[in-house]
Specification:
Helix content: under 10%
Radius of gyration: 54 Å
Structural class: mainly beta
Number of strands: 102
Length: 1477
């Protein structure tokens, strides 16, 4: 089942309503429907300024406008204040005269607000509606809409076209001037003007020269309201003159000298494109030595001999004629001291000296000198060029004085010889310099850049539409360098020569209009110019007086889907621009703000439609000439939703399948349910039955397999759901298609709905999302409240995946909002969109805060704390707590306080006194139930007394027993936590042995009189002090006691190393123990030889305490040795370390099913680390073989290491570590290897624990197993630490054993333990193991082995016997003739020779008795007995692993006959010997 994206009508979708426009259109100044509405976001091509409200004391218009301004809404006034505050102080081109008039006589505040509202909020240009009735009524001066460019270059082969188009009402007429004189089109038969246009067409089909029509043209568009002008268009005819004929002499130049080949192209219009080629039209290769300048010349920084291999021709390509003209070619003659043009010298690092060319410093070829200047116009590209000569070729770098080059506009061209800066502005002026350098020196050229500017607009005048009596202004502001002058014209004539107008005033770049009337209509031109160019702009002044008019059909019906966004449009027009307001159901308040938003074009947007938004909306447009209104009826419809979607099904062929599709929709809308198959319309045949809520397929066939989509649609929206049908053959085993599809997390539920609203419950219904091929197992309903923790979501309840509606139990006085999360086996979906909020009514609390405690933070206070109640248990507003307390077992009255937080501090309390405490919840609806009484204590003080009569008894070399007298309870001044012993190692009894005097401690919880301190160092002096501890801290210390630990056994010797330099000796080395624990009296070495399952006699060697080396002479070079070394004191031998002589290199590899090293990761123990356990140290080495051969175990002596338990101090425990050696049977294909195993005790404890930890180490990995009595499913962690104190952990499931650690290092010591991940404190004993050292086995040379020598002798004897037999057979075989023709092969059908001789017959080809045959049972013929090639030099003979020779002696049979007698000799024994060697 897959839910598809549902589509619905988001806006005003209905039969009578046009689709709603995008809300961003008007926000960006665009009209959604330019043919139907006139609004502030609709623009004309040229732009029309907005009319503004005018103010005139003596006119009726002003009085009507005052009445309208007084009716402004508060929302409009607020908008006015914001806009007025953000408006710049300087008036722009679109601002109106009322502001100027107010400066002279301020109007009343309401009128001021009305004027600014029209001026600022309606300051965008408007468009005359396209409605024909309005178009025919409204008059408009002409506006130029299209014209040719100022510099108009035409192709002389085509007709000339000069464009000029304009619009206006009435339609304008056109005429032209040429060179400032009237151009009479009627007198020239070649010139015509297009119909309803001013575009000139000059036709040369009947003859004529285009050059005769060159000049400056200007177009005039005129109607009765004014005249508009085009730019002055300069017409030029393209020219491509021919290159002048010239004879060029060869250019003679010395090798290494600079050279310039000048192009001097003929002047064309436009300028031609220059490029250099040879006379054979091959391009000239350019680089930093040879390149073309911007002026078209070809520059050689230095000439080389290879430059005269071609000639050089300058070419000019003309754009309009598409022709290329070629100049006569230059020929170079290079004078050189080295006439040989060796091509290998071109890439020589010192090419010039290799050719005898003298090196010289750079000099500039272009531009000349050290400084120059350049002028560029603003907005153009600046091109600076520096070309330098020199040997070697100089490099060019560019810089700007006093700043950096503009990285965003600057780019380098022509091998860094040119710098181009695009779109130049004034800040790009300044001094630039180029630096040319080579190894002989450098030179630079400074270019002073001046940026000038043709005129460019700051404020271009805009068309101005005013109502009669309004004021306005036209502004024409331009800038340039030098400063441009401004000239005003009206209808194409200078303003000075136009008839005077008392309502018009010119102030420099501004024309001010006051009290405009219908007669003020005209087109004004602003011409601003300087020496670099000019700008010409037209702006008309039009006076319109139009009352408001609605442009949309009346009484529209808009139907919208619930919770969607919609816009109600009300297109209108009027002059002055009317104000538009919206009302609902005849209410008097204007709709704007909150869920409503009114755009500047008058459209009303409702952000989220609700049921209560249904009704009749009225838009009213008002200006000083009247008002107009229209009504829109809005109906809100329920969305269409599929709540029972079709499911994926797997069916056998011939069965019946039903796909459900149950739909919920608005009953007033017509519902249509259709089906798609594989996203194509489904044909409902005889085998199918479509009902309103299902699709039934009878007799399913293979062609019915595919995806089926249910489409439920109304005229406003639709919903879709898809399912997949899999059809199986009769004999096929039904399989779920979902198993083969990729599974994913479910899609989020949607369309949450709250129904059955009650005081303490509500029903929540949702529509499931797509399960993405994994069935939904659960739904989690979460809630959020906005009072205590707004924005935080909490789990409310959980429901099965088959449920999509549930009743939720609610708490009083919570403003709930719900969302739903779907869960399947892959994971959780994204949360659904929140539901609507639902607030329950309040009630007194039904519970009190939990976890009430009373503890002192100081010795004279008690802090009462509790867990505050959440929003679902507050039940009402103003939740507070009534705190009561009194001393225990006294009949004092209760003290009380009201607290709003979660703590209260009681002050001035005695030290550590019990109190009775109660905390009760209360809100504005009442108090909660009577609270329970808890006992708390006031603050503690430090203990006043120390333990006395401390006695020490030494138990062994690492532990002591303590006994002391307990303190009196009243001296504790708090709760007695523990007795604590502080002890430190003062010194060692061994001389010159440094010890750490770090203070350590041992804790004895509770009120107890004795304890045991363990893990001490033997043979040391210690000091000890005792204290009593309460919650505040330590009390005073007891007197210091001293004691001495006796001598103990030493630790294992360090760095025990076994080396085998050769087959005769083994060297052993070791270091002294890290902890002697007494006076060393020597070392004991035990070693035993072993070979497979055979063990030799154990030999014991004793050494002096100063000896740390031993060399052993091997008695057997094949066997290996196992060495065990320990140190001794008077007490006995200490911990032993075991090593073996180097093993063969074929160690086992890790087997499958173990934990890979990639899963090993460093992580902290959960919460707190498990308790420290006694350390049992076991050193083991060896490697583990992965062979499957039968293994037998040989058990060596076990080592017992005493440990001190951490629980029962009076009991001594031992940990036995058994080292087991496992070797392979003699039938193994590989040499035997050993296995070392480390085990913990096998006895299972009574309580839950982990025991019998076994380690099987190798050089780079180890297998770990253990036993436990914890429950099934318990997770474990294997923790191991190497000698560098790097800790790693491996998480393990209970059923995964053994665990393999695969990232170990050879010869490294590790400590390891196993602990429970789920149950804190359950851990195995810590053990130590060591990985084996990865030695390389020194194998003996096989040629020196006796068995191999004997085997070779036997083979030689056998070959000698075969040779003798072959000679005997040959002496009886007769003659063997020589072939007369080499190309006649031997064969059994060959004729007998006349002399009676015969060929070697098949009889003679039988194998010799006792000979060694080939694998196919034949002996191959031999042609030579002394050729090593014939016996195959590579690989036919092989040795088995036991050294025996296998295979056959193979030889080659030459396909060509040899001269002389052909022999059929047997294999030469000499060759056989050589092949074996």
């Amino acid at each position: 089942m897959r839910r598809l994206a549902a589509s619905g009508a988001a806006g005003a979708a209905g039969a009578a309503a046009a689709p709603a426009a995008d809300s961003t259109d008007c926000a960006q100044g665009r009209s959604p429907r330019p043919r139907r509405l006139i609004d502030l976001c609709a623009l004309w091509d040229t732009g029309v300024s907005s009319p503004a409200a005018g103010w005139k004391r003596a006119s009726g218009i002003a009085r009507r406008r005052l009445n309208e301004a007084e009716t402004l809404s508060s929302v409009q006034e607020a908008q006015l204040e914001r806009l007025e505050a953000a408006r710049p102080g300087r008036l722009g081109s679109g601002e109106r005269g009322p502001v100027l008039r107010m400066a002279r006589q301020p109007p009343p505040p309401s009128v001021h607000a009305a004027i600014l509202l029209c001026l600022l909020s309606l300051s965008g240009a408007i468009e005359i509606p396209m409605d024909p009735s309005i178009q025919n009524e409204l008059s408009q001066p002409p506006t130029i809409t299209k014209q040719s460019v100022k510099d108009h270059i035409v192709d002389p082969r085509d007709n000339i076209l000069i464009e000029c188009e304009a619009k206006g009402n009435p339609a304008p007429s056109f005429h032209w001037t040429r060179n400032s004189r009237f151009f009479n089109i009627a007198k020239d038969p070649r010139v015509s003007m297009r119909r309803k246009s001013g575009t000139l067409v000059i036709d040369f089909r009947s003859g004529g020269r285009p050059e005769e029509y060159e000049g400056e043209y200007q177009c005039f568009a005129r109607n009765k309201f004014g005249t508009a002008l085009s730019n002055r268009i300069r017409l030029q005819v393209s020219k491509s003159p021919l290159w002048p004929k010239e004879n060029l002499d060869p250019v003679v130049v010395q090798e290494g000298a600079p050279l310039t080949l000048q192009c001097n192209p003929p002047p064309g219009l436009p300028s031609p494109v220059i490029f250099w080629m040879s006379s054979s039209m091959e391009p000239i290769t350019q680089d930093k030595r040879v390149s073309q300048g911007h002026n078209g010349d070809l520059y050689f920084s230095n000439v080389m001999l290879q430059d005269m291999q071609t000639d050089y021709s300058c070419n000019a390509r003309f754009h309009f004629t598409h022709t290329i003209q070629q100049k006569n070619a230059f020929t170079l003659k290079v004078l050189t001291n080295n006439p040989y043009n060796d091509s290998s010298l071109r890439n020589h690092p010192d090419m010039y000296s290799a050719r005898g060319v003298a090196e010289r410093t750079p000099s500039f070829m272009y531009p000349q000198g050290t400084a120059s200047s350049q002028m560029v116009l603003r907005g153009m590209d600046l091109l600076l060029e520096c070309i330098a000569s020199g040997v070697p070729t100089p490099d060019i770098a560019w810089y700007k004085k006093g700043g950096d080059l503009p990285s965003d506009k600057a780019k380098f061209e022509n091998f860094n010889k040119a710098l181009r800066i695009t779109n130049v502005s004034e800040e790009d002026s300044g001094e630039y310099f180029c630096l040319a350098s080579n190894k002989m020196g450098s030179i630079r050229h400074t270019i002073s850049v001046r940026v000038k500017a043709a005129p460019y607009w700051l404020d271009e005048p805009k068309n101005l539409i005013l109502a009669p009596g309004e004021d306005g202004r036209l502004v024409c502001r331009a800038n340039g360098n030098p400063k441009p002058t401004v000239q005003w014209m009206v209808n194409g004539e200078p303003l000075q020569s136009a008839p005077p107008n008392p309502n018009r005033e010119v102030a420099g770049d501004t024309i001010i209009f006051r009290d405009t009337q219908i007669s003020s209509r005209a087109v004004y031109q602003c011409n601003t110019s300087n020496e670099h160019g000019y700008l010409l702009a037209n702006a008309f002044v039009s006076v319109l007086d139009v009352p408001p008019r609605m442009l949309s059909p009346r009484n529209q019906l808009i139907r919208v889907i619930l919770y969607n966004r919609t816009r109600l449009d009300c297109p209108f027009f009027g002059s002055p621009i009317p104000t538009l307001r919206w009302f609902k159901n005849g209410q008097g308040s204007n709709l704007d703000g909150g869920n409503y938003h009114v755009y500047e074009n008058g459209s009303l947007e409702i952000k989220m439609i609700r049921k209560e938004d249904q009704g009749i909306y009225t838009c009213v447009a008002t200006n000083i000439l009247g008002k107009a209104e229209n009504q829109v009826r809005l109906e809100v419809k329920d969305p269409t939703r599929i709540y029972r979607m079709p499911e994926d099904q797997v069916a056998k062929r011939g069965t019946t399948v039903q796909l459900e599709c149950r739909v919920k929709h608005d009953p007033s809308l017509k519902l249509t349910v259709s089906w798609l198959k594989d996203d194509e319309p489904l044909y409902i045949g005889n085998r199918m039955k479509k009902e309103d809520d299902s699709l039934t397929i009878f007799g399913v066939a293979e062609r019915d397999q595919g995806s089926y989509t249910c489409v439920a649609s109304t005229e406003l929206d639709q919903d879709l759901a898809k399912a997949y049908l899999t059809v199986l053959a009769d004999q096929a085993t039904p399989t779920n298609r979902l198993a083969a599809l990729p599974k994913g997390r479910p899609d989020r539920p949607r369309d949450l709905e709250l129904t059955d609203l009650a005081e303490r419950s509500v029903r929540l219904t949702w529509i499931p999302g797509d399960d993405n091929n994994s069935p939904i197992t659960d739904y989690v309903v979460q809630f959020e409240e906005d009072q205590f923790q707004p924005g935080v979501w909490h789990d409310h309840s959980k429901f099965p995946g088959s449920v999509n509606s549930a009743i939720l139990q609610l708490s009083p006085y919570v403003n709930y909002q719900f969302r739903v999360i779907a869960i399947n086996e892959v994971g959780s979906s994204h949360p659904s969109l929140p539901s609507e909020r639902y607030r329950t009514s309040g009630a007194p609390p039904e519970s009190n805060p939990a976890d009430v405690k009373g503890e002192g933070t100081r010795k004279n206070n008690m802090e009462i704390t509790w867990t505050p109640m959440n929003a679902t248990s507050a039940f009402g507003p103003n939740l507070r707590y009534i705190v009561k307390w009194r001393r225990r077992e006294t009949r004092e009255t209760w003290n009380n306080a009201t607290v709003w937080g979660s703590r209260y501090v009681v002050g001035q309390t005695p030290v550590y006194v019990p109190y009775e405490i109660r905390v009760q919840a209360e809100n504005d609806f009442g108090k909660g139930p009577e609270p329970d009484t808890v006992i708390g204590y006031s603050g503690e003080d430090y203990p006043r007394a120390a333990p006395t009569d401390v006695k020490i008894r030494v138990l062994n070399s690492t532990a002591i027993s303590l006994q002391w007298n307990r303190v009196y309870p009243d001296t504790v001044q708090g709760q007695l936590r523990e007795y604590r012993a502080y002890y430190w190692r003062e010194s060692s009894l061994l001389k010159n042995l440094w010890v750490s005097q770090k203070r350590q401690q041992a804790s004895f919880p509770g009120d107890r009189p004795r304890g045991v301190v363990s893990r001490l160092f033997p043979y040391s002096n210690y000091k000890l002090e005792m204290v009593v501890v309460n919650g505040r801290g330590d009390g005073p210390r007891s007197e210091t006691k001293e004691f001495t630990t006796p001598e103990g056994v030493p630790s294992a010797p360090r760095r025990f190393r076994v080396r085998q330099p050769n087959l005769e000796t083994i060297n052993l080395e070791w270091d002294h123990p890290e902890h002697p624990n007494g006076i060393l009296i020597g070392y004991t070495l035990k070693y035993v030889a072993f070979n497979g399952t055979k063990l030799g006699k154990q030999i014991v060697e004793n050494f002096s305490p100063n000896q740390t080396k031993f060399t052993m002479q091997r008695a057997d070079p094949v066997s290996r040795y196992r060495f065990t070394l320990s140190a001794r004191t008077q007490v006995g031998s200490g911990e032993a370390v075991t090593e073996e002589s180097p093993a063969p290199p074929n160690e086992a590899t890790p087997t499958a099913g173990t934990v890979p090293a990639a899963e090993v990761m460093d992580m902290a123990w959960d919460n707190a680390a498990p308790p420290t356990l006694p350390l049992t140290t076991v050193s083991v080495t060896g490697v583990v073989s992965s062979t499957d051969a039968t293994a037998t175990a040989a058990t060596t002596e076990a080592t017992t290491v005493p440990t001190i338990p951490s629980v029962a101090p009076t009991t001594m425990a031992t940990t036995t570590v058994a080292t087991t050696t496992t070797t392979a049977a003699t039938t193994m294909e590989r040499p035997p290897t050993t296995t070392s195993e480390t085990k913990m005790p096998e006895s299972a404890p009574d309580r839950q624990s982990i025991w019998n930890v076994t380690v099987l180490p190798n050089s780079k990995w180890a297998n770990i197993t253990w036993r436990h009595n914890l429950g099934p499913g318990t997770a474990f962690v294997v923790e191991y630490i190497d000698s560098n104190h790097t800790k790693k952990t491996v998480p393990v499931k209970s059923q995964v054993q053994p665990v393999q650690l695969t990232d170990l290092y050879p010869g490294m010591t590790y400590t390891l333990r196993v602990y429970s991940r789920d149950k804190e404190g359950i851990s195995s004993t810590v053990i130590t193991f060591m990985t084996s050292t990865a030695y390389t086995n020194n194998q003996a040379d096989i040629a020196t082995q006796g068995w191999f020598i004997g085997l070779m002798c036997a083979i030689a004897l056998l070959v000698l016997i075969l040779l003798i037999v072959c000679f005997i057979k040959r002496s009886r075989g007769g003659k063997y003739p020589v072939r007369e023709k080499k190309d006649v092969p031997l064969g059994p059908e060959d004729p007998k020779e006349e002399d009676g001789s015969f060929d070697y017959s098949d009889e003679d080809n039988k194998p010799l008795q006792g000979s060694q045959t080939s694998l196919d049972g034949t002996i191959k013929q031999q042609e030579s007995d002394d050729s090593l090639v014939d016996y195959g030099e590579g690989g036919e003979g092989q040795f088995n692993e036991d050294g025996s020779f296998i295979g056959q002696y193979t030889v080659k049979k030459d396909k060509e006959e040899t001269e002389g007698n052909e022999s059929s000799e047997a294999t030469s024994p000499v060759n056989a010997i050589y092949s074996l060697a």
